[in-house]
Recover the amino acids of this structure.
């Protein structure tokens, strides 16, 4: 199997853009988190632009977009904003940008509605049964309170969404700037994350579904506590291997564009197998709660509330996947081998 290749040695400088294919530009926006950036893509689209992802809904990102609209994008209207999924680092500025430019929002229905639920019921995650979701899996009252008050602040870093949108549906085709992009959707990281594939030019706008340096966060959500997002994600990786040419240039939501999708998919599959094996090994020694399994999965203690929420939900994704397979059994909130 061929090695993974990075066609672009360095990411674009702040405020700059790298042309990764004719009429397709890669930019980076800063994030105030451990993962300190998000990639966005600008596509020449006839007389205007199509924007793929928008960055976080905060003052710093708004200032950057103002500079872009008055600079690089000046004189050619933003016609379309595509939000690949509902996470605020990707869709956070969508409301502001669509209102400012008059652009239409394109998004999957599931992620659009998920974002609306969070925005319309901002205190939902601090109420029952969501509090018990964390407490019943071994998080203390103090950690739960800190997580629900501060750890989920990220989900509300949005400028809102337009009241109407254009639904992106898997299997349909979107024409942008003379290219025909096949719409693909996949779950695991987000309920219905959108990817765009141009097989003729071997380009894949992959969002967070597959990245060269990190695995996307695969999380069980409190509103679907028995869900199997890891199983969904594993199936999506197999589908990408089956449907995308190996030499395709993958344009991800974070880190660098790369060639070598099949090898990277295999690495990610092996990564999640290793995490499942670590859980099984720990639970053979003694029964453990999901909270006690966080350092087993991640190899370290995690204290930052923003990271604890992601880590807990990802540990539970592996646990739920193993439980569905009959490899783990839950007894009184603890997990033992089946």
């Amino acid at each position: 199997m061929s090695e993974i290749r990075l066609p672009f040695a360095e990411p674009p400088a702040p405020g700059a853009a790298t042309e990764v294919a004719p009429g397709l530009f890669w930019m980076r926006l800063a994030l105030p988190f451990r993962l300190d950036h998000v990639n966005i893509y600008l596509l020449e689209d006839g007389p205007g632009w199509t924007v793929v992802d928008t960055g976080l809904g905060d003052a710093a990102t708004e200032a950057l977009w103002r500079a872009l609209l008055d600079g690089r994008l000046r004189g050619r209207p933003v016609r379309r904003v595509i939000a690949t999924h509902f996470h605020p680092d990707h869709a956070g500025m969508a409301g502001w940008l669509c209102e400012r430019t008059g652009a239409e929002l394109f998004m999957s229905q599931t992620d659009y509605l998920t974002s609306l639920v969070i925005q319309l019921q901002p205190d939902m995650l601090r109420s029952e049964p969501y509090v018990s979701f964390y407490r019943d899996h071994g998080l203390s009252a103090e950690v739960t309170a800190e997580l629900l008050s501060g750890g989920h602040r990220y989900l509300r870093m949005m400028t809102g969404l337009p009241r109407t949108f254009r639904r992106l549906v898997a299997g349909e085709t979107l024409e942008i700037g003379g290219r025909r992009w096949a719409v693909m959707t996949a779950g695991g990281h987000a309920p219905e994350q959108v990817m765009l594939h141009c097989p003729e030019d071997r380009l894949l706008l992959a969002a967070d579904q597959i990245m060269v340096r990190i695995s996307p966060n695969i999380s069980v959500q409190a509103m679907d506590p028995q869900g199997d997002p890891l199983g969904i994600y594993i199936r999506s990786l197999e589908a990408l291997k089956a449907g995308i040419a190996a030499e395709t240039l993958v344009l991800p939501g974070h880190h660098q564009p790369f060639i070598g999708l099949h090898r990277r998919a295999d690495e990610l599959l092996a990564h999640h197998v290793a995490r499942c094996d670590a859980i099984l090994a720990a639970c053979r020694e003694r029964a453990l709660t999901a909270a006690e399994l966080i350092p087993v999965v991640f190899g370290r203690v995690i204290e930052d509330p923003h990271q604890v929420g992601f880590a807990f939900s990802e540990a539970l994704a592996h646990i739920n996947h193993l439980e569905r397979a009959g490899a783990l059994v839950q007894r009184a909130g603890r997990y033992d081998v089946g």
User: Anything to note?
Assistant: The chain has one domain: 18-265. The longest helix spans residues 261-285.
